[in-house]
Request: fold
Amino acid sequence: MRYFSIKILVLCILLPPILYIISIQTLERYLNEKYAVEIENAYLGDTRLLLDGSIPMKDSINDNINQYLQSKILNDYGLKMAVTVSTKKGKLLYPGTFEDDRESYLPRDSSLIASENFALMNEGLTVKLDVKVEHNKLLSNTILAVYIVLSLLALYLHYRKITNRIQQAEMDRSREMKIVFSQFEGQRN
Reply:
């Protein structure tokens, strides 16, 4: 097939994985920025409860972030979010760690909790988010499938164009042969 372009074939083979990789990286960057802002706004929750000592900050942060992560539907389809919240001095507040603190089971004074919360707020908190689109999950497979279908569609359209061109060339050649044959018949008579 002298009309068939090898360049089109190579592009249809190479473009889907390249576009997939670029799309995944772009999606991760976009979602990282978007969700980081949302987590920044939601991780503390109601600061009045923290400042009056109703709830320890660590518990509030854990509850709020867990609730936020569960509300994101993309997590079910292959998005993985790793969130860490720590103080400027490096004390890890989220994800929760297991501590052998026997006093944590006893009721605590709300003024003590309030002063600890206030001290942590004054120390400064940093939130870090790392969003990853997991491979071979519904979200990533859908992105790849879209690019493969588009590539196959481009290849099919190119094939149809070439087929039409070949059929047109055959019809032109047949018409020319009829004209030449009729002229030859006219000369013989």
